[in-house]
Design goal:
The chain is mainly α. α8 crosses α10, α9 crosses α10 and α13 packs antiparallel against α14. It is 44% helix and 5% strand. The strands form three sheets. A two-stranded antiparallel ribbon has the order 1-2. The protein has a two-stranded antiparallel sheet with strand order 3-4. Strands 5-6 form a two-stranded antiparallel sheet. β3 and β4 form a beta hairpin. It has three domains: 114 residues, no CATH class; 115 residues, no CATH class; 40 residues. The longest helix has 19 residues. The chain binds zinc ion (2 copies). One zinc ion (ZN) binds next to loops.
């Protein structure tokens, strides 16, 4: 059965936003609407924008009388191979995690611009990207939560057609966050990333780099910066210990600011930062480093390996003892730990 009202998807609209908007047109809450029309698919208990299956997209294109390409374009599937070459614990690089738990979201992964949704009540695909923190149209910092109660944005839990928080039912629009000082370089980086996403190429220090390699290198730099302290000068915001995809928008602005300064005058900026923070090749060796970044990484000192190996072998011995528990294993473990402590003191 086709839908009674079949809205056109808006430019750059998220699939979940389209479903919520369609349910609103029918005057029904989004979860009941989807249970009625798609009883065989689980939709709100997962990140449907990332994990929509082809059978579901087929069913949706039939109900909404849209082409399959048009429906697919609303998902994040077309961007995921470009921005992410890994799926770590279910997360994709540069795509904000929602922390889906049953039908709610525990993380603040969906951002919004209050002025944009006041005009057109739809959520954009770009608002799920980790490098996007400001509105392209209004230039304001995006919200990642209800301005009143700080609850994550969950459009399918909101009252049909109302731009009100699902938790406190207050309006999500009408307030604007002040633009922080560091937003200019962050906005420039955001524009470069969006340009790479659109064209498939990026510019790094005057050289043309494929978008996949660009995003991979950027994510490695972000990880090393966060792990190895170059963001600590930005305060607690960066040292929150979370990966970029799980950070709140304010924290990401600080992390992206550090990243933007690293890329500002590539490769000089990287060389200075690496010298200041004593970066070594070993910090990058666990990751598959793209060529444009490897050209600089190979100039770094190799880094020390002896202590790491010793620590790893100690850890392996302790794990093995704990697992097999041979006779007198507690005594052996104590001896190993005392020896390791004496080694460290030397
Ligand atoms: Zn806006
Ligand atoms: Zn609220």
């Amino acid at each position: 059965m086709r839908w009674g009202f079949r809205p056109e998807p808006l430019d750059g609209e998220l699939l979940s936003s389209y479903l919520v908007r369609s349910a609103g047109l029918h005057g029904v809450p989004a979860d009941r609407f989807c249970v009625f029309h798609f009883p065989e698919f689980r939709i709100w208990t997962r990140d449907i924008d990332r994990s929509a299956t082809t059978p579901f997209l087929d069913a949706l294109s039939a109900k909404a009388e849209l082409s399959l390409e048009c429906v697919e374009r609303m998902t994040l599937r077309d961007w995921e191979p470009l921005v992410s070459n890994r799926a770590h614990r279910g997360m994709a690089s540069w795509i904000n995690a929602l922390g889906v738990y049953h039908r709610v979201r525990l993380r603040h992964g969906l951002q919004y611009c209050p002025m944009c949704i006041a005009g057109v009540p739809a959520y954009k695909k770009t608002w799920r990207l980790s490098f996007v923190t400001t509105c392209e149209i209004h230039g304001c910092v995006l919200f990642d939560a209800c301005p009143c109660c700080d609850a994550p944005i969950i459009p399918h839990r909101q009252l049909a057609g109302a731009l009100r928080c699902h938790n406190c039912h207050r309006s999500l629009i009408g307030t604007l966050l002040p633009i922080p000082e560091q937003s200019l370089p962050v906005t420039a980086l955001q524009n470069e990333c969006l340009h790479a996403l659109g064209t498939g190429f990026a510019d790094v220090g005057g050289a043309r780099v494929r978008a996949g390699a660009y995003f991979r290198g950027l994510r490695i730099l972000a990880s090393v910066s966060l792990e190895r302290g170059c963001g600590k000068s930005q305060g607690d915001a960066v040292s929150c210990g979370l990966p970029m995809e799980c950070m709140r928008t304010a924290n990401r602005v600080a992390a992206l600011c550090a990243l933007a300064s690293l890329l500002a005058a590539w490769p000089k900026s990287f060389r200075h930062r690496a010298a200041d923070w004593c970066w070594t090749q070993r910090m990058f060796c666990r990751r598959s480093v793209p060529a444009w970044l490897y050209r600089e990484v190979r100039r770094l000192p190799r880094g020390r390996v002896r202590r790491t190996r010793a620590r790893q072998s100690l850890r392996a011995k302790l794990t093995s003892l704990g697992r097999w528990k041979p006779e007198g294993w507690r005594g052996t473990r104590a001896v190993l730990l005392v020896c390791a402590a004496q080694e460290c003191r030397r």
